[in-house]
User: Fold these one by one.
Assistant:
Number 1:
Amino acid sequence: MSVRYERLDIRTFDFAKADAFADRTIFQTKPWLDFVAETQNAEPVVAALSDGGEIVGYFTGLIVRKLRRFKILGSPFPGWTTSYMGFNLVPGYSRLAALAGFRDFAFKELGCVHAEIYDRRLTEAEAKTSGFEYAMGGSYELDLRPPEEALLAGMQKGCRGYIKQAEKLGVTIEEASDEAFADDYCAQLQDVFAKQSLVPTYEATRVRSLIRHLLPSGNLLLLRARDAKGECIATALFPAFNSHMYFWGAASWRAHQNQRPNEIIIWHAMKYWKKRGAEFFEMMGRRDYKKKFGPYEIETPWLRASRFAALSKARNLAKSVVGLKQKALGLAKQWRSS
């Protein structure tokens, strides 16, 4: 098999063709591309893959510029608050075959110096033989296909208890539809990060952009948890597409966490998207508190390739610097408020 990439004009491309693929994720849809393009000053890239003259799938990503001149192709790239992109392929077509033409497309046709792919259907065995550098990204996933009673039974006993506790305390869940939601969420998120002497990696402008682009599509759920007095004590965002719902973000005021709003807000989201056809809940990362809902572990290779060896090292260094900067800003904020 010999794959050929053809970049498409996204102004005229019929995204419904790609959206029809069973392996399509929310992060490859046009509303999400518009969100990333706006918040990262990025240029969307969609390419048709053909083999033997027949279309076998599509590639989705975005180009950003570093130091004004160096082009990076991310599908996605760390820091975009975006997960699985990569390919959408017809059943039976190999992702290794699709990767065979990727370097030439990224480096020669697009003129990029570095490229990354995080494709949910790519396996570690394939990554090992792909010729790309890679690191495994871990997460938790939950099967939503059993009935609600079985999903509750699959949770840890304490989690079920917290949901009941929240209900008894009068915590209610509100489905929101306003951009002002971003202010509630980000204020609570700052409180969450402050507990670890950190600051959030993004601001309310990014959340507003996400809401503006995704909410009209019907593929984004915004939730507020309110206490018995009507005060907003927790917020969360859950995008969904095809068979998967995703945990994009959640936050709550520390002073109200004893009312257990986080557990009941996630349970509401699970029921909401399950009723609308979601079969799996991708929890976006591996944090201990997510275990209580009864998920299983998944791992996906994150591939990267550079035209020059030094660029790969620079990427890793930059990632470490960002982490140190976040810690320093959190400590500085804590010192100013003391």
Note: The CA atoms of residues 134 and 331 lie 33 Å apart.
Number 2:
Amino acid sequence: MKATKKPVLAVLTGAGMSAESGISTFRGAGGLWEGHRIEDVASPEGWYRNRNLVLHFYNLRRKNVMEAKPNAGHLILAEMEKDFDVRIVTQNVDDLHERAGSSQVMHIHGEIRKSRSTIDPSLVYDINRVELNEGDICEKGSQLRPHIVWFGEEVPLIGKAVEWISLADFFVVVGTSLLVYPAAGLIMVPGSNVKKFVIDPEIPDVSAVQNIELIPEKASTGLVLLRNRLNTFCMA
């Protein structure tokens, strides 16, 4: 007897997904990121200008991530794997989805607990401690940098993200302003026949998207509502 194929639930998550775990959102007032200009800590130019500043900045963020715990929203998405083929495309660099138990997670903007070679991007290493410092080198002898996609750099996994989302029976956007491209364009991938949901206290402009339902709630509350809504679809 063949097992019933689970419907694919594709999910795009952003900073609001992890905010309830104490992970600071991307920008504060004035376009600053924890007191720093974006171009100083999240660009190739910033890296070449002041490598120690960039390393220190990400060391602090890594410490924050390692001390944080998955919140109820992360746990709900992991639990939904019982009924759905859940595929999470996240803009977040933390590992809270994985720690909550989600088995299919794609980090399109990189991972804070990994480093990579500055001369060979294919050389990626786990960071098992808090700090990545000047003098930490890859096997080819070059300085290691945070495994993060900075502004001005290509997003290598965007094509695979499109593949995942194109398979969706349901598509959900959680906790993102949909302002950072190319990730923001992923909401246009599913066809008009695919039911879509946006969960965020401040709903972004999705007026051009068809077949969409808005849930103006924080991630944990909104995902409870989503789970109930999906149950009604699946039982229909």
Note: The first helix runs from residue 15 to 19.
Number 3:
Amino acid sequence: MLDLTRILAGPYAAMVLGDLGASVIKVERPMKGDDTRGWGPPFNHARQSAYYLSVNRNKLSISLNLDRPADTQVVRKLIAEADVVIENFLPGTLSKRRIDAATLLTRNPKLIWCTITGFGAGSSRPGYDFVIQAESGWMAITGEAEGEPMKSGVALADLIAGKDAVAAILAALLDRARGPVAAEDRRIWISLAHSATASLVNVAQNALVSGKDAKRWGNAHPNLVPYQTFAASDRAIVIAVGSDAQWKVCAMALGLPKLAANPSLATNAGRLKNRGKLVAQMQAVIARQSASHWMTVLDRAGIPCGEVRTVREALKNVDASPLYGVSPAIPGTVRLPPPLLNEHGAEIRKVGWKIFEGL
């Protein structure tokens, strides 16, 4: 797989495919490489940024100047023997340098070409996650109800688009394995904007069904009560009641038998109607004890719950390292550390894809 991407969505998709066993060559511009190499601090001892390290393991790196004919020839040779190309250049950037997807797909009948865009095949707008979150409706539903619109703490639009790219590429590889596939059917377009709006799922459906725009609910849920954070005496916890049966058990576990027996609260619709009073009574009780106390009580009762942890706390029992990042969430292996810029350039120029035979 030839990775001609930079920043997050494309490199992440290429890394996931690398985790699954793909041989990935990352092509970067000379001197600076992928933009995220400079997105720090923090940097490690080799001056690699944490951001870059997070999405570039299981790859080899070559630095090429696509304005030099000799270097574009190297790219074309690699594409001629590749199974997959993934790129996120603005429209026309590659074709002006004689790297034309349509032509190369015709020449290489096994090639699958995935382009990740910000706003679709017909748009030249650069696609940055923050902008996508703003325009996709995400920020309008994220944050406190009376507060400002808020983005997610993780660049989820990029990551979801990257996962969409992985799914589409794997589907195309499966389709190809069944027999010859026309060039146009081996051409994949992924849009961050479309991935983001598709990910609105139930929020989008609420708006479509009701005809009303979605609102911000902070850490509460528009359709379920109680399903939100509560402040224990030492830290915040989450209680996520997903059924009427769970609600009665939850109320009893919290020592609120009157709420459990109240017929107006027996259904989720009733609890939605009485959200304010119900949540206030729960909060008053929960504030008297520590988070660990309530975790023990609610876990014993089978109620979905959790402490609000810091990132370092969340990573404490996870297979992760400062070099390789968090281990693959899907079945995969970590074989290669994120490469230094042009670390394998000379050998790739010399032997091409055969470089993987010795790894």
Note: The chain is about 40% helix and 10% strand.
